[in-house]
Amino acid sequence: MLILHYTGMRTGAEAIARLRDPMAKVSSHYVVEEDGRIHRLVPEDRRAAHAGVSHWRGQTALNGRSVGIEIVNPGHEWGYRNFPALQMAAVCDLCLDILARHPIPPRNVVGHSDVAPDRKQDPGELFDWEGLAANGVGLWPKSDPPAPPAEAVLGLLGSIGYRTDLPLPVLVTAFQRHWLPRRTDGIADGETRARIAAVAALCAAGA
């Protein structure tokens, strides 16, 4: 798996210092600064403590099966803002390098909020998942099918990878942050259900 995060701290320097502090017991394989600089903190063949309590596609304890990238951004607590173009370009290049080294399917390129939807919001609705997918990183549907019935939503979210033992609005909000970022209201209306069905179809096709 490849799991993307934002740092959620006021500065990149603060985030890097925390990630390098053994007492903090958190770490990531990489940090990407807003000017595009990349820091490698943990070798890819070593476990980094970035995902915490997590779940995706029936797997848990994802620290042991993922590469984690922290992307410098103050996050929702400290003034969430757009990710600069230089930073996104560096993230894209880094992801492509990682994917060239590891057999990670597009459906397993996700955000922290996807694998921990009840705890995390990052990298959030301002992150350019669509642009990454256009360059070969992750999934983005080209079109949406007709909206499935409301009773199908939980099963479709489970087929994408989400845990299904959480309240539906929590899961829908996490989905929207990634694949329908103009809204994060947790409401499974027709537009959201159609997008859920589109992503589920890509996952079912083995993407």
Proportion of β residues?
A: 5-15%
Assign the CATH class of the largest domain: Alpha Beta
CATH architecture of the largest domain: 3-Layer(aba) Sandwich
> What best-fitting shape do the alpha-carbon axes yield?
globular
Question: Helicity, in percent?
Answer: 25-40%
> What is the CATH superfamily classification of the largest domain?
Peptidoglycan recognition protein-like
> What is the assembly state of the chains in this entry?
single chain
CATH third-level topology of the largest domain? Lysozyme-like
Please mark out the parts with pLDDT under 50 across 5 or more consecutive residues, or reply none: none
Encode the helix/strand succession as letters: EHEEEEEHHEHHHHH
Largest sheet: 5 strands, mixed
Number of strands: 7
List the helices and strands and how they pair.
Blueprint: E1 2-6, H1 12-19, E2 30-32, E3 38-40, E4 55-56, E5 59-60, E6 67-71, H2 75-78, H3 85-101, E7 109-111, H4 112-115, H5 129-134, H6 153-160, H7 168-179, H8 190-204
Parallel strand pairs: 1-6, 1-7, 2-6
Antiparallel strand pairs: 2-3, 4-5
